[in-house]
Amino acid sequence: MLEIKNLYASVDGKEILKGINLTVNAGEVHAIMGPNGAGKSTLSNVLAGRDGYEITQGEVIFKDEDLLDLEAEERARRGIFLAFQYPVEIPGVSNIYLLKAALNAVREHQGLDELDAMDFLALVREKMQLVHMNEEFLYRGVNEGFSGGEKKRNEILQMALLEPALAILDETDSGLDIDALRTVSEGVNALRSQERSIVMITHYQRLLDYIQPDFVHVLSDGRIVKSGDKELAKELEDKGYSWVKEHVEGSAA
Amino acid sequence: MKQLTELTTSFTSVADSIDLPGQDLSWIQEIRQQALAQFNQSGFPSKKVEDWKYTSLWELTQLQFSHLVEPVEVSEQHCEQLALLEDAYRVVIVDGVFSADLSKLTSLQEGLTVGPFSQSLERIQQQLGKQVSIEKEGLTALNTLLMKEGVMVHIAEDKIIDKPIELLVINTGGTDNLATHLRNMIVLDDNAEATVIEHYVGLTDTSCLTNVVSEVILAEKAELFHYKLQQESDNAFHIATLAAKQATGSQWHTNNINLGAKLARNDIHSQLFGEQSHTTMDGLYILDNEQHIDNHTRIDHFVPNTTSNELYKGVLNGSSHAVFNGKVMVHKDAQKTDSNQYNHNLLLSRNCEIDTKPEMEIYADDVKCGHGSTVGQIDMDQLFFLRARGLDEVTARSLLTHAFAVEVLERIPSEHIRKALSNVIEQRLPRGKK
Ligand SMILES: Nc1ncnc2c1ncn2[C@@H]1O[C@H](COP(=O)(O)OP(=O)(O)OP(=O)(O)O)[C@@H](O)[C@H]1O
Ligand SMILES: [Mg+2]
For the residues of B7-55, what is the DSSP string, one character each? Predict the structure, then answer.
């Protein structure tokens, strides 16, 4: 599904990703943890195709294609979905308009016809139930005046509707209350399948109780410094990141 | 030199040679005489006049305007396409001439009088020219000298007119440099309510001049929804003066949408003479290429307890130039005035230019006033978000531009009119160039 090889990226001459290697196969769930400023959001932005990053080395292969050659929208249509750490507000563009435009963009790429208005609404309603969102949110501006938790649910709603091949969730659990965390996790779990992969960035081991990852990685200072299974997350919770850093430095010596 | 008086066109001899309405009415002859004297003195304003600092009329002085034409025929079907609203009373003016055939003035609701200016002079004798000043504006003097057609609307006391009234002014471009001088009079008696749309359309890119003066009188508790849609041709000069006097409890809701013309100038003036009266002044301009627009608005709060809201937004592309000058005057008796005024601009290219100046002059001490202006570009976070959801860049940019623009429609209560205007705006938006 996704293969990141020795990826280096910098912004304004500042190197942020310093040789990332990561392989995500179809059906797998990977968790990425790591201290603030390690480069986790940078990695998700680079994967989603945001302008402004200079890729100085390495490559990313997604479903046998060179991902870095594609524009953001082309990646989205091929099934890459980024749930943003800070979803942006877009007053004047209604949520329902966005959902429709996004779904049609993907369907067109897949050679499918646009859904008619009735079928579309039925589908959206079904997905809204999944994330316990009130229909009123459809007619508001995208994330306009939404609370932090509502914005995150809205991201999951978009994901549920678009059914991406690879979902990258950037701290979707941050700022959620316990019920919302459960709802969002259910939304993600409902999407889990043999054809789909999920990369979730989180600071909290708690999320991993709800969404059981196959692998856990620690990203620190632009590199994946440690990988393991979900036991690694528990260990991190106990010992903190300094433990990983010492561990890495120790092994390097 | 504060005036441009050396004009290629001799408007004085035009006045002598064409058939203007009211030649048998001495009072109107007198008004025209005064206007003539005034215009000969003042000509067009030059850029030395503070209010015209950024807008040059020099090119106008160089043109030889024609005034006498046979209007080009416009089919009923074409007219239907051009109109903003299908279900409305309609007064249609083609190349400056009223078209009874294209107008829709049958089965008028009781209490509504509407018709062409040229056939309504007796009715408006008392009010004509009282809302504007020929001394201050050469262009208004010129308009008064040559006013020939327009719309007259009168709503009787307590009448609420359900159907909007659309004034559709079509410039076919059949004649080069055609000048039309239009005068509109809109009078609402006590408690009357109506919706009026002034709609100016150009069909070809022939050069022309539309010089229009609209006067509005709102009696006690009258409420007027007053929209303007300017879609003149790319080589048109559009000069408009719009002025209202408002009595106690009256409300004037304006929305001034300008999409066309090579050079457009709007002078809009509301005069709040009665307590509890309110003005909304909203507007939008979407410019591309070499287009130039200058919106000058002024709201006078003369008495206590009046309110005004103003929101002007602009989308500029190409090497267009926009000027916004909004003045709110809170006079010394106008305690408890509540007023806000904003101008926001979205620049889509490096070569466009905006001069914005929201102003408030406050002589009362117990008031609530706010104003400001912004100039910005497409938000990169929003753009990336939309692209990350699969929308191509061009679509995403025009969606964001549209979202920015249509905010000015939010205060229009009629969903029908809001949608119609939103569609027109969408078609005019630059297709998201980088
Ligand atoms: N446009 C930019 N210009 C300069 N520095 C940047 C830019 N974008 C990111 N950085 C820096 O890159 C580093 C990594 O940022 P990133 O947002 O990827 O961290 P993160 O791992 O997601 O952190 P957090 O856990 O706090 O979300 C930070 O030090 C950040 O300040
Ligand atoms: Mg981050």
Answer: -SS-HHHHHHHS--TTTT-HHHHHHHHHHHHHHHHH-EEPTTSGGGTT-
Query: Has residue B120 been placed in a domain?
Result: yes
CB neighbour list of residue A249: distance below 8 Å, 6 or more residues apart: none
| B49/A contact by beta carbon, under 8 A | no
Q: How far is the CA of B408 from the centre of ligand 2 (A)?
A: 36
Count of structural domains within chain B: 1
The CA distance from B274 to B281, in Å, is 18
Per-residue pLDDT at B342: 97
- Which atom of ligand 1 is nearest the CA belonging to A40? 21
Distance from CA of A111 to the nearest CA of B (A): 15
The verdict on the CB of residue A42 being under 6 Å from ligand 1 is: yes
Which residue from B380, B384, B403 is facing A91, i.e. has the nearest CB? B403
**Contact (Cβ atoms closer than 8 angstroms) between residue B113 and residue B122:** no
Backbone torsions φ then ψ of B44, nearest 5 degrees: -95, 150
What residues 362-381 of chain B have any CB closer than 8 A to a CB of chain A? 379-381
The verdict on the CB of residue A39 being under 6 Å from ligand 1 is yes
Confirm whether B364 is domain-assigned. no
Q: How many whole angstroms from A35 Cα to the centroid of ligand 2?
A: 9
**pLDDT tens digit string along A12-36?**
999 999 999 999 999 999 999 999 9
Task: Choose among A73, A88, A101: nearest Cβ to B382.
Answer: A88
pTM of the model: 0.89
Mutate to test the pocket of ligand 1, among A8, A10, A11, A12 (most ligand atoms within 8 A of CB): A11
Flag whether B432 is in a domain.
Answer: no
Domain range enclosing B255: 11-274
Q: Is A41 in the pocket of ligand 1 (CB under 6 A)?
A: yes
A51 contacts B384? CB cut-off 8 A? yes
Residue B263: φ, ψ to 5°? -135, 125
Cα angle, residue B250 at apex, residues B244 and B256 outer, rounded to 5°: 45
User: Which of A51, A73, A98, A107 to mutate to test binding with chain B, by most B CBs within 10 Å of its CB?
Assistant: A73
DSSP E strands in B219-336: the ranges are 223-231, 236-246, 251-258, 263-272, 278-287, 292-301, 307-316, 321-330
Query: Taking the mean position of all CA atoms in its chain, how far away is CA B98?
Result: 19
Q: Show pLDDT as tens, one digit a residue, over chain B (434 residues).
A: 678 888 899 998 898 889 999 999 999 999 999 999 999 999 999 999 999 999 999 999 999 999 988 899 999 999 999 999 999 999 999 999 999 999 999 999 999 999 999 999 999 999 999 999 998 889 999 999 999 999 999 999 999 999 999 999 999 999 999 999 999 999 999 999 999 999 999 999 999 999 999 999 999 999 999 999 999 999 999 999 999 999 999 999 999 999 999 999 999 999 999 999 999 999 999 999 999 999 999 999 999 999 999 999 999 999 999 999 999 999 999 999 999 999 999 999 999 999 999 999 999 999 999 999 999 999 999 999 999 999 999 999 989 999 999 999 999 999 999 999 999 998 888 764 33
Q: Are strands B353-362 and B321-330 parallel, antiparallel or unpaired?
A: parallel
Residue B434 within any structural domain of the chain: no
CA of A238 relative to ligand 2 center, distance in Å: 22
Whether residue A176 is predicted with pLDDT greater than 60 in this model: the reply is yes
CA of A242 to the centre of ligand 1 (A): 19
Q: Which residue in chain A has the smallest CA separation from B405?
A: A92
Could you give the ipTM of this predicted complex? 0.95
Show which of residues 397-426 on chain B sit within 8 Å of chain A, judged by CB atoms.
399-400, 402-404, 406-407
